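We emphasize that the prediction below concerns an isolated chain of 161 residues; any contacts that depend on oligomerization or on bound cofactors are therefore not represented. The input was used exactly as deposited, without trimming of termini.
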Amino acid sequence: MFGAKAQVNVRGMLASTLAMDNAGFMAGSHVLQRSSSARVLNEGSLTAAEGGYVALVGRNVINVGNITARGGDALLAAGTKVTLQLEDGSLVGYNIDLGRAGALVEIMEKGVVSAAGGRVVLDAQATDALVAAGVNNAGIIEAQTLEGKACSAITSSDMAG
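Result of the prediction step, given as a token string:
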């Protein structure tokens, strides 16, 4: 949880309620997994440097605060097993390998996610087609650019390749 007065300024950051295997991490693997009922909650201000990333990953991911990743990536992903592809301090892709019933990504009314010139990705995966997962947005999402690139919603497969 990042409280209302929290301010984080980094090149790139990952906050998750899922676990990462230490040996895998040391070998360059970024697989997060565990069945957890805990949620990632941001009420503060999370800012990545130009071209950096903010990734919030867990069973439930809720943003009430501000997330800024100018020219980079803002990823809010819900599931029980998520693989991130990180390269030179940037998030180049991700995949939700295993979903969870009730997985939820939500931007609340006062929440803002901004990645001017970059990408904003909200993704929640359920265990199968019979179980619900949700992405809800009541806040503001910004990913406009000044470079004339088209902005569009992307999926995990778009980002991965």
